[in-house]
Design brief:
Elements: E1 2-15, E2 18-26, E3 37-39, H1 46-58, E4 60-77, E5 80-96, E6 109-116, H2 126-142
Parallel strand pairs: 1-5
Antiparallel strand pairs: 1-2, 1-3, 2-6, 4-5
Length: 143
């Protein structure tokens, strides 16, 4: 079985008295709301991948706060079973503008949107809901 490693971010900022996270709508999947993530490049740490993918897919610059955990699953691509690990990190947004992404990323990302972190259950994937819930718990305890 092949193995694949990715990383992503729960990129948050505080606005109007509450926490918001950056989400994406992948190209060709208009009903999917997801977190920014992508493949770990050779020699790259998962935290660096999470920061890079967040910038590439949302237009936001962010700093690492903490690792939230790993999601593991198996999927099939062209008849080959792949064991995938996705590491998620909590990121604090420090700049940029949501949705201002390079045109080359428009092949992957249809839209980038703010979502109140408390509404993390609106994310389409269970593992992503789990890590966003962890981010909310962590931020709620620290406020």
């Amino acid at each position: 079985m092949e193995r694949e490693f990715s990383a992503g971010g729960v990129a948050v900022r505080r606005m109007r008295g509450r926490w918001w996270m950056a989400t994406i709508v992948p190209r060709g999947k208009p009903k999917v709301l997801a977190l920014p993530k992508g493949l770990v490049e050779p020699g790259e740490a998962t935290v660096d991948t999470a920061v890079r993918e967040t910038l590439e897919e949302t237009g936001l610059r962010a700093d690492h706060v903490a690792k939230l955990g790993d999601i593991r699953y198996v999927y099939t691509r062209q008849g080959v079973r792949i064991f995938k690990v996705v590491s998620f990190h909590l990121l604090q947004v420090r700049g940029g503008r949501l949705g201002e992404i390079d045109e080359s990323m428009r092949l992957e990302v249809e839209d980038a949107r703010w979502l109140p972190l408390a509404e993390y259950r609106r994310l389409s994937y269970g593992g992503e809901r789990e890590v966003a819930g962890r981010a909310l718990d962590r931020l709620t305890l620290s406020v």
